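Support reply, case 0932

Customer input (verbatim):
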Amino acid sequence: MVRLSIIAIALLVAQTTGCLAQSQTDTGLRGSTPVVAPRTLTERRIDRQRGLRPPETNARAGDGLPPLPDPFDAFSTDSDTGATPNRSNVFRDLDDGNDAPVPRARADGANSATQADADAADDTGSALDSNARTDRLSGLENPRPATGPLDARTLRGSTLSRDPRSATDQARTFPGRPDADALFQEQEQTYDPLGLRLGSFVVLPSLTVTGGYTDNTSQSSTGNGGAFYRIVPEVIARSDWSRHQLDATFRGSFQGFPSQSDDNDPAANLNVNGRVDVGRATSVNLIGTYDLQREDQSNPDVSTGDTDGILAQTIGAEISVSRLVGLIGLTVGGSATRDLFTGGTLGVSVGSGGATITGSDDRSNTEVLGTLRVSLENDAQIRPFVEASAGRREFDGDGDALGFNRDSTIAELRGGAVLDLAPKLSGEISAGYRNENVNDGNLEDLRGIVFDASLTWSPDRVTLVTLAGATDFAPTTISGATGSVTYSGTASVRRSLRKNLTLDAGVGVSFERFEGFPQEDIRTNANLGLTWDLNRNAAITTQYNFDRLDSTANGSDFNSNSIELGVRIQR
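Our regenerated output:
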């Protein structure tokens, strides 16, 4: 009996030990499955701003259960296609584990390598291409490279071509997206220029040459009709880097009048934008601008009978640092703007509106501003912000030819909101108040309400509507006047009538009032044009333009009509 008891106890101990060992082995296997810690709201917001998808939270994969859905997917919008996953589909994997809008890493670890690469990219702050990242996480047979071909129409500011992928890829990545949209975009893209790859940059050059006729060559009340030609070179360059960004756009224009060479109109514009990603939540933004244009004869600062014209040049530079602190976005920056006026009559003369003015060189000045912007970054479709600026405007001389000291101190405060109702509506709108306190007590302060807006609305896949508003404070050399405040607004529509035929139409109006001088100007313009793409490298263009000025100054009103036809060569 004793022996039987000892044997039974030994068997019981052995069985218990084996169960404990097996339990420890199972626990160890489950514990060896990598579990990605949930990312904070701030980290996920930064990821989406850079085009990255947040790493998966797959805490249940070790138990062989389907992963929990990412709550952000229910409200996110794909940056390229504009497709928003159906909210009911997002949680469908809780029912049967199938048809998730974005397939996730499987529990058997088959997708662990791609997930590890994506997580490593997040840790280093590398902004991988969102399309390539989605394909890799989706397990597509032929994923796109991290740096794919850039959409030339996107570089030019249009959203008509949003997704360079094939209809097959789109259907596999977003099952609910209609194939008709994808097929249309594929066909429409066959006329987009491919550009030139120079190192890590994609460059899009083009040259437009047109000829036409206008009934007012000088844009004034005494203008005559005549034929003209126009030459417009343009170069767009964009970096193709995993981090940081540098874009540049140059556009020149020369309108020549063979019968009225004094009315020849040169113009040029250069914009350079750069971004340096210092960290996951900090970036440095750099902006450089240059603008050249000839002032119209209708400008009251242009001397009566002055046929030489005045060239106005603006050179600007801006640097700012942006940082995300929790739900608050902070931007601190400074800017310098140089306005240089050359040519025209020097000394004291009579302006086009009958005002006593000084020479154009007296108008040259430099404006320096410091700006602080605070915004709410909570992933909402409407994000408010407030912005304050202060600085100085200094003229080149101690006083103009009439003895006025026009130097001033500037203060401005505005509030607004960033709209992100993609893919239909996006942009920014703001309003506030600005005051320029002039040093000379004989001149009134230049002050007024400021309003600025830039909105893009896409009601359907072939139509793009752009709305813009701006407020401009400009000094003047008119005797007794401080300067002028101009409010302007434009509305333009671009519609693709066919895959190679585009209609452009727009209207604009501006209102300018002078502080200390009884003059108000209302200027209205409209345009209508067609572009027929022959292939990727050539297009035929035609355009009609209307311009009208209504002024309280006697003899300043005018109308202008012009029509032109030409060809654009692009690469």
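We compared this against your earlier run and they match. Two observations from our side: The chain is about 15% helix and 45% strand. The two ends are 100 Å apart (CA to CA). Please reopen the case if you see a mismatch on your end.
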